[in-house]
Amino acid sequence: MRRIWLQGLVISLLVHALVLSGGWLWTLLRHPEPPDRPPIRARLVAPEAAPEPPAPDRAQADRPKPDKPEPAKPEPAKPDQPPAPAPDKGTVARPEPESAPEPARPAVKKPAHPVPKKRVAKAEPDKPAPKKEPPEEAPEPKEPAPAKKPDKPEPDKPDPILGQDLADKIAKMADRSDSAKGSLRQRRAVARFQEAVRSRVQSNWLVPPGLDDRDGLTATVRIALTPDGKLASPPKVVSSNGPGYFNSSVVRAVEKAAPFPMPDGPTRYFQNLELHFSPDMVQ
Amino acid sequence: MKRTLPLLLALLLLVAAPGPAGAVLSIDIRQGVRDPLPVALVPFSWEGEGPRPFDVGGVVSADLKRSGLFRMVREDAFISRPHTPEGVTYKDWRLVGADALVIGRMQPAPEGKVEVRFRLFDIYSQRQIAGVRYQVRPGGLRSVAHRIADTIHKQLIGWSGAFNTRLAYVVKEGDEFRLMVADADGANARAVLTSRHPLMSPSWAPDGKRLVYVSFEQGRSMVYVQDLDTGKRSTVAAFDGINSAPEFSPSGDRLALTLSRDGNPEIYVLDLGTRNLRRLTHHGAIDTEPTWGPDGERLIFTSDRGGSPQLYRIAAAGGDVERLTFEGGYNASPTWSPTGDRVAFVHGDGSRFAIAVMDLKSGNIRTLTERGLNESPSFAPNGHMILYATQGAGGAGVLATVSVEGNVQQRLQRKRSGDVREPAWSPMR
């Protein structure tokens, strides 16, 4: 009797283990990235990002070590930066129009009214560029919007839910462990860094005029930084409800603001940023 | 056992996790700079014999600068001066602080024409964002320059400029009235009519080739339509009493105007083809200054039926009248935006007047200028700028423009003297 009971328990445990691990695998397969976590561009920055240098690969040690990963684009060095615009915020652009001479002409005379004959305004082919993009609009987010959570598993399948649950818990645990070492000092460093990035980007963002008719205009730009604060790749607009020229303006702002002043110590935490642009029209 | 399983799994996952979760730092950017966009323009090359037929690049540059939305990067700072895309080194242009670059070349083309090619580059996304080729006779080069400026404006700001347009206005000098037409930058100004009697209320036909206006040359007000190419003109309204404030309908086949033929100034719609006249308003007060909505279905006009001049709206087919303004003791001279969502007007207390816009959806009014002697607003065809007459330093009327946001204001300077009044911005050419 007792044996049967024990057997039953063992079988039940095995079944549970199977079901749970099945669910876990299912979620992993279905969502290659754990849910609730924006993709991390670890591959871009990992070699330098780790707090300690990774154990050198023996095979690699012999080879000449490659220099720092070059950013995808030539990065403007600090002195290259256009001088930070420091105009009075309140002043209004009031360019003096150039005076135009008004030649005296005889009255009511048949005027020669030149109408330029346009020979079908031909758009010239784009300069060869790595990516073919329509010349009309600003770069469009090539990536799907990341904010979207993966679809919830069907409710009639219990396993995935469990898996999802687990993943959530794990993410939370990871967060906690992260903030555990995130002492007051760490949090201060984060706040300081955020403020530094914000002020650099804000002073480089030329907000396109005439946007105030649109309510709730936002754009999110994701950027990956090298450990020394340069852009590891061009900024990416991952979501936006604005027109192309608005997106261009935010990308330009980030490009101009880089490189960013990185805090001392490990920089991994500071290398992946998401900037949410939402112009405050009242200013 | 059952309890440890999830924990085990958790541990497994922790090990497998590639990095700390939530590793993307989020930062909100709510403010920016309202500065003009820095643009570099390399003077266009001339690859033909003899002197350059026209400084296209110079006119493009002046247009962009005048809009108030661009700052032209100083030419003497340029590191390179390319005319072709192969010569563009993006880094050179970042160094001089340009966000966008304009290059171009001019070459002789068959039949005495000139070929103009221009390209616009975004320095930060490192790509060409516009490029157009034109072939025109030398006389058309100024217009090509304005069109290039419009294209650049559209690409960088989001809507087309109004550079390739014209202005009509009335100048009074001594006892002479002149009806003037000039390019939007003040170039090519010429009188299309000169008179010893008042000329008033010019307004453009939607084809941009004809003007309708009021002239007192017969000793009383009459409405004329004049073809600007041929100079030919015809009388379209010479009814008893007042004939005033004409405005072409968006389709160009009708005219809204004020007539007092029935005893009191009322709004009428005149069909230019059939000569049919329809009276829209029936009120003992003054109804005047009709302006068409872009759909041609409705009109906004000024009436003092409520005791002070205020704006009202009525269907072009007639019907009920709806009052639009309640704020302020004087709201007049409406002009309906080509985009349909706003009306600009003179807003004041009876002695000092500002140019204001009202959002027709919300009813919100925004004052765009200081109060003073401001009058006769007229929308640019892009719906983003308003042209009006104001008082210059010497007390004489001058032309000025203001953006619908109120942030870009400018005066249009004229070399010649005279009191400038009643401007009207042409449609797009």
What does this structure look like?
The complex is a heterodimer of chains A (283) and B (429). Chain A contains 6 helices and 4 strands; from the N terminus they run αααβααββαβ. Chain A has 283 residues and is mainly α. A 3-stranded antiparallel beta sheet of chain A has the order 3-2-4, covered by helices on one side. Chain A starts with a helix and ends in a 6-residue tail after the last strand. Chain B is mainly beta. Chain B has helices at 4-16, 56-66, 90-95, 141-157; strands spanning 24-29, 37-41, 45-46, 70-72, 100-108, 114-122, 127-136, 166-173, 176-183, 190-195, 199-204, 210-215, 222-227, 233-237, 243-248, 254-259, 266-271, 277-279, 287-292, 298-303, 310-315, 322-323, 330-336, 342-348, 353-359, 365-367, 375-379, 385-391, 397-403, 409-412, 419-425. In chain B, helix 2 crosses helix 4 (141-157). The longest helix of chain B is centred in the middle third of the chain and has 17 residues, at 141-157. At the A-B interface, helix 1, strand 1, helix 4, helix 5 and helix 6 of A face helix 1, strand 1, helix 2, helix 3 and strand 6 of B. Strand 1 (122-123) of chain A pairs antiparallel with strand 7 of chain B.
Secondary structure blueprint with pairings:
The complex is a heterodimer of chains A (283) and B (429).
Chain A: H1 2-30, H2 42-49, H3 58-62, E1 122-123, H4 158-181, H5 184-204, E2 219-224, E3 236-240, H6 244-257, E4 272-277
Antiparallel strand pairs in A: 2-3, 2-4
Helix pairs in contact in A: 1-4, 5-6
Chain B: H1 4-16, E1 24-29, E2 37-41, E3 45-46, H2 56-66, E4 70-72, H3 90-95, E5 100-108, E6 114-122, E7 127-136, H4 141-157, E8 166-173, E9 176-183, E10 190-195, E11 199-204, E12 210-215, E13 222-227, E14 233-237, E15 243-248, E16 254-259, E17 266-271, E18 277-279, E19 287-292, E20 298-303, E21 310-315, E22 322-323, E23 330-336, E24 342-348, E25 353-359, E26 365-367, E27 375-379, E28 385-391, E29 397-403, E30 409-412, E31 419-425
Parallel strand pairs in B: 2-4, 2-5, 3-5
Antiparallel strand pairs in B: 5-6, 6-7, 8-9, 8-31, 9-10, 11-12, 12-13, 13-14, 15-16, 16-17, 17-18, 19-20, 20-21, 21-22, 23-24, 24-25, 25-26, 27-28, 28-29, 29-30
Helix pairs in contact in B: 2-4
